Amino acid sequence: MTMRDGTEDGAGDGPAIVAGDAAGSGPAGSAAQGETAGSARGTSFEALAAAALRDPALPPPAAAAGFAVWRNNVRASGCRALAATYPALRALTGPRFFEAMCQEVLHAHPPESPVMHEYGAEMAGFVAGFPPLARYPWLEAVARLEWARLRAYHAADAEPLALAALGRYAPRALGALRLTLHPSLALVEADWPVVTIWAETTGRAEPSQPDMARAETALVIRPDWEVQTRVIPPARAAFLKLLAAGGTLGEAAAAAGGGEAELAAGLTEIFSAGAVVGISPA
Predict the structure, then answer these.
(1) E-strand spans in the chain?
(2) Fewer Cβ atoms within 10 Å of its own Cβ: the N or the C terminal residue of the chain?
């Protein structure tokens, strides 16, 4: 796709931004540095080391031979994890800008777990409030979509049911049934064509000129080995949200704005997507 300002996705260093825009513009400013330095005085070696790992402006603790290499490795591994989780966001902003932004993210939200695939949940919120990206509000939606895909990949496995599983229930009883949805399922609602942007940026769709005023809702799910991402209409999203909240099929169909026709259409789509793993009678 083409950016609104006419630059091509992934071209150069980002959407009319240079990497220098990110450096020093976020939470790694001088005030935050001073606060960190002050709070670290008089604390243990571990606390001093942790503070210095988060903030490259702080000096390493005494007797920490090779600390600079250690710190660089920690930050580099964090940036690699973010790049693996957010390939479309990296391509849209440009590699150099993304690298600089990662340093800001690492400073504001250091990893709390040694399992790096769990790192990066704060990216969408960070992007939404990052001044250099204020002209590109749809990037936050792309980040939310990519995080949902990662969570779906690592979600628990479950065997999807076929639509035929409803055959043991009388038609008049369908409206009172409750469905258990696949643990990997997530909905990503956006005021932008988020699935189209993501698909074109990652090479899953041919480049186009999407209507940036078109809202899209993504259904993200991993019914087997591969994470699937598709656009679903607002009625289907409302249908799934009611089911996820514990509503009955009849309540979900009403929320989607339809009767028997909507119920039939909704059931056909969600079962074909592998979204249903359990059925509970009233």
Answers:
(1) 178-181, 186-190, 216-221, 228-232, 276-280
(2) C
Please give the tally of structural domains in the chain: 2
Residue 227 sits in the same domain as residue 192: yes
CB-based burial label for 72 (10 Å; 0-12, 13-18, 19+) = exposed
- Residues 120 and 176: their CA atoms lie apart, in Å, by 39
Query: What tens digit of pLDDT does each residue of 186-244 get?
Result: 999 999 999 999 999 999 999 999 999 999 999 999 999 999 999 999 999 999 999 99
Domain assignment present for residue 143? The answer is no
> 218 pairs with which residues across the strands?
188, 231
pTM reported for the whole predicted model: 0.77
9 in any annotated domain: no
**Torsional class of 274: left (φ above 0), alpha (ψ -120 to 50), beta (otherwise):** left
What is the identity of the amino acid at 73?
A: N
Rounded CA separation 33/18 (Å):
23
Domain hosting residue 74, numbered range: 19-136
Specify whether the CB–CB gap between 250 and 176 falls below 8 A. yes
| Strand order across the 216-221 sheet | 186-190, 216-221, 228-232
- Amino acid at position 209, single letter: Q
Residues 246 and 132: their CA atoms lie apart, in Å, by 41
